[in-house]
Amino acid sequence: MAVTEPTPRAAASAGGVPAVEVDLWSIGVRGITEGVLDLSVLDAAELGRFEGLRRAQDRVLYGTAHIALRRLLAARLGMPPAEVGYLREPCPCCGAPHGRPAVLGRAGAPHFSLSHGGDMVLIGMASRPVGVDVEAVPSVAGVRDLTSSLHPLERGEIADEAFSPETFARIWTRKEAYLKGLGTGLGRALDADYLGETGRAPSPGGWCVSNVPVDGRHAAAVAVEGPEMTLRVTSLPARFVYPPSGSPSAALSLSPSDSLSVSPSVSPSDSLSVSPSVSPSVSPPGDGGREPSR
Predict the structure, then answer these.
(1) Global pTM?
(2) Most buried residue among 47, 164, 167, 191 by CB atoms closer than 10 A?
(3) Could you give the 3-state DSSP secondary structure of residue 231?
(4) How does pLDDT run across 171-200, given as a tens digit for each residue?
């Protein structure tokens, strides 16, 4: 994967503050069936949500996402996946406990974000608040209606591209990644902040937002609190969510792609390239892609 260096202007604006390191993992669910998932690591609430989903493909997507998240967090924390506990931070809008998800009772645990949409899962971890979003590129029919809820300048960018579903999907995932990083989710007005790709207005202060290269059927983005970020993207194999045959963390020996240095003044959609050995993705709004429900 190519490395994008921060521009001199971006480096100066960061005031010497180091870039935030963000780890991203993607996993596609095509070919995974619910019978092979290691559901033993999920807690009662997750199992209830899993069993309550009517469609098999939704159960596979949800199960894959939450098993992978638990295994990745467990590897960072040095504990069994089934023992990872979650809580919700206070919502920045109302103070109620439905803000960003966090690890329960572990000082120094990484900030994390989980999204699933289409047939892809995306997980992000960082030392600062982080949000990720992945969605399937929508049909042409729904783009105009959904675009109307966005920031006026974002609406203009999408209109300039003839309401392209791909353009809409990239901007939508940038928006959701930022709102999830804030901890408000869609409780904050969609037209309140500019998260477009062309720099027609300043992006929200104090945050760095980047598109994440993925396959042509999806769009994805990541947002982190900080002036710059360095991304490490790893594509996980399906076996990562199967019952372990040996060490549960064996799949974690996978090598991530080369690091990407991203700053707010760089347009990642234009400047990031992905080598054939890496299979990340891009996508928009559906009923998946939300943080762990607790």
Answers:
(1) 0.83
(2) 167
(3) strand
(4) 999 999 999 999 999 889 999 999 999 999
